[in-house]
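Quick one: structure for this chain?
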Amino acid sequence: MVNTGPMYVINRDNDGVFFLCTACNHVERVKQFDGRLGSQRTQAAQAMNQHLQDHRDARMQTRPMAMAMER
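Got it. Here's what it folds into:
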């Protein structure tokens, strides 16, 4: 797969820091994670990475021929 740039961006607004998926505008907000379980930012990044993996898996299942042609 060709890397076409960042898969997500980290941004800040009035509600704090958030991770935004560049493919579908999915958002993980740092404040929504429990600080007692460790770094909220790390938890948000892990959730975003899981979203990206799920998104990639779904894309590969729906377009196997197109994915092969992109390579």
